[in-house]
User: Fold this.
Amino acid sequence: MEKIIKKLEEFVAARDWEQFHTPKNLAISIAIEAAELLEHFQWNDVQFRELPDRKAIEEEVADVMIYCLLFLNYMGSSVEEVLMNKIQKNEKKYEVS
Ligand SMILES: [Mg+2]
Assistant:
């Protein structure tokens, strides 16, 4: 994860894009990329084994994840910690009966 975040920081810095990365812009970008992912399923309801355009779908998932990683990174949050905390919270909220 650290390697990926470092690579993203380098990518953004080299292009001087930090100036555009406000919380609102990143949140909007997450939603836009999620919509681009949804577009692949607009008129179908396929299962994972029969996904159309696998490569393009992978790229949209990556776009969503990249903006999420940037968002947490700008917040100074640890991605691992945030995810683990949320999973643990969900485990308590949705107990196995
Ligand atoms: Mg995209």
In short: The chain has one domain: 2-93. Residues 76 and 86 are 17 Å apart (CA to CA).
